[in-house]
Design a protein that fits this description.
With 115 residues, the protein is α+β, with helices and mostly antiparallel strands. The chain has four helices and four strands, in the order E-H-E-H-H-E-H-E.
């Protein structure tokens, strides 16, 4: 169960860009909250493998996002990134859908819930 959540409308993005933005936003919030350990469950195997350094980042759109994520990870004592099927990551999917619905109704682009 997450300690905090972010629901942000990103507009039209590729799945990988959206997933990296989510990782960066989550890590920034974790750092803001003083977290020393973060466990990430991602439905993008590509990003999991790139964060662990097992796969190269080739897409020019992902290079700066990957660098930002790695810089934020360096502030932590320990972190994990594990791949889970989208069907097992329903809370993340729900937060995405909430952001889309909220913005369509004229609401804020970003909602952050902190402890």
């Amino acid at each position: 169960m997450p300690v905090a959540t972010i629901s942000e409308y990103l507009g039209v993005q590729t799945n990988n860009v959206a997933e990296y933005i989510a990782v960066v936003r989550a890590l920034a919030l974790a750092n803001e909250l003083g977290a020393r350990r973060v466990d990430m469950l991602l439905d993008s195997k590509l990003i999991v493998e790139q964060l662990h350094g097992r796969w190269r980042v080739k897409d020019a759109k992902l290079i700066p996002l990957h660098a930002e994520a790695k810089a934020l990870l360096a502030h932590l004592d320990r972190w994990t990134a594990n791949h889970v099927p989208r069907a097992q990551n329903k809370q993340a999917d729900a937060l995405c859908n909430q952001a889309i619905d909220r913005v369509q109704l004229g609401g804020p682009r970003v909602v952050v819930v902190k402890p």
